[in-house]
Specification:
The chain has 114 residues and is mainly alpha-helical. The protein has 6 helices and no strands. Helix 2 packs across helix 3 and helix 2 crosses helix 4. The chain is elongated.
Length: 114
């Protein structure tokens, strides 16, 4: 998408792409509405670029089995360099020592022996 497009133009383009994605999978708006729990009119509005909430978009992508597209949209940044530096400075993990040897056994004696 081009950065010079306005928000309404981007919404319109996203709606066109979502509609094309749905039709490529031969799914009707009614089927997607049932799968997502959204009203068919809501799906029509999104496809016409009339906006939606983030929650609605997630429900729509879930119904299209396309939640993995969000990973490409905003991938996990991983561990930051600052966090890596803190991990290196962290104290070393202490491990439990081996079990101690039991004390030597006391020799057995009869009760009347001293």
């Amino acid at each position: 998408m081009e950065t010079y497009l306005s928000n309404p133009q981007i919404e319109k383009e996203l709606g066109i792409r979502l509609k094309r994605f749905r039709l490529d999978r031969n799914l009707s708006q009614a089927v997607i509405a049932t799968r997502s729990g959204l009203a068919r009119r809501t799906i029509t509005a999104i496809e016409n670029g009339e906006g939606s909430t983030l929650s609605t978009l997630i429900a729509l992508l879930r119904a299209l089995n396309a939640l993995d597209t969000l990973e490409g949209f905003l991938p996990d940044p991983g561990v930051s360099p600052m966090a890596m530096a803190k991990l290196q400075d962290a104290p070393k993990v202490k491990y439990a020592s081996n079990p101690r040897r039991p004390p030597p056994p006391i020799p057995w004696k009869w009760a009347d022996e001293k």
